[in-house]
Amino acid sequence: MINILNFAIIFLAIFLFKNEMCYNIDMKIKSLQLKNFRNYENLKMKFSCDVNIFIGKNAQGKTNLLESIFYCCIGKSFKSIKDKDIIKWEADNGYISLTAERKYRDIKVDIKLSKQRKKTILVNSLPIKRIGELIGEINVIFFSPNELKLVKESPEERRKFMDIDISQTNKRYFYLLSRYDKILANRNKLLKNSENISYVKETIDIWDRTLVQTAKKIAFEREKFVQNITPYTEKAQSYLSGGKENIRLKYICGCQVELNEKFEENMMKLLKKNLEKDFKFGHTTIGVHRDDIDIFLNDVEVKTFGSQGQQRTVALALKLAELESMKDITGEYPILMLDDVFSELDSDRQKRLLKFANRTQTFITCTDDKKLSGTLFEIENGKIIKEEKRS
To answer: What pTM, to 2 d.p., does this model score?
Structure first.
């Protein structure tokens, strides 16, 4: 009896040691099934709880796997495409099924795609009516070389960065965005009614008040987000640069008023003051739809004066900061997806990134064998031709 008990204890100790990282990772994707998704006709695969590496030549389907996972987390692709465009070209319907595990529950997401009808999304076998019901069930951070636009391009990219992140930890915020967009669209439609300007001036106050009330809530959430993520960004930037670079973030509110107790009153005054200008341009010229984040590296604006290498590191630091920020809010690290980022980083920053990535379940794509540790899946023409566990 004692021998059996000792054997059981030893076996359990070995099992726990081998799976120590899995126990430290609360949120993880367990399996994925695809039918007629991109270049995948029929695929079933299970994942490691730590690092999963998709390797293969270009255009074999590595990024498509990340896209399918992202789709099940956010309800849409990270590419600006229509739903029907991700269905295999000769098929009429597609299907994605993903199972995941969080600290207190399991989650199963099924998405049915059709070229003739709207997509259907089920969470734990229950259909949902709006994407907002899906966002936040499985949190995810995606990074690719294209994410450089987060630093270099228009404020829209930085607003999108804030909105996706906040929505994953605050479902109310997602609906605030939808409400604001509808109010803004109605106000802009009214501004284009130049044939009856007197009527517009009499009725626009109704839209102004609801716009201001919603804008206030969004602006305060975005400011809080930037405040929360700043210390994590500072640490990530310092870590990736070996302590050589200091980063600073500043939230820029497009409402052009101070974020204080007089926000609504001051914004209402500014909307009235700008009304003639809004008539002239046919749209609302102030509001949270014009928000931005200013990013400074060593007190120099990165967007204008930073090198491409610095801009790339800043974009990555912002993404890694999201990991820590979400962990702070939810108690769990989100899923991290890195799409072909190693080709853009020097060897020192590659090592630092991999060490950082070990905190959560990570999915990596690359074109050549970099001797990475984790579970390796070799992809060729939409098929898994090799699976290998590396220590």
So the answer is: 0.89
The tens digit of pLDDT for each residue in 81-132 reads 889 999 999 999 999 999 999 988 999 999 999 999 999 999 999 999 999 9
- Across the beta sheet with 300-301, what order do the strands follow? 247-252, 292-297, 300-301
188-201 confidence digits (pLDDT tens): 999 987 677 777 78
Among candidates 316, 377, 322, 373, which has minimal Cα distance to 346? Answer: 316
Cβ–Cβ under 8 Å, residues 297 and 314: yes
Top CATH class, 142-331: mainly alpha
299: tokens are 């007190």
Give the start-to-end residue ranges of the domains of the chain. Answer: 142-331
254 within 8 A of 291, measured Cβ to Cβ: yes
Taking CA atoms, 139 is separated from 222, 239, 283, 348, in Å, by 18, 24, 35, 28
CA atoms of 355 and 92, how far apart (whole Å): 43
Cα 121 from Cα 117, distance rounded (Å) = 13
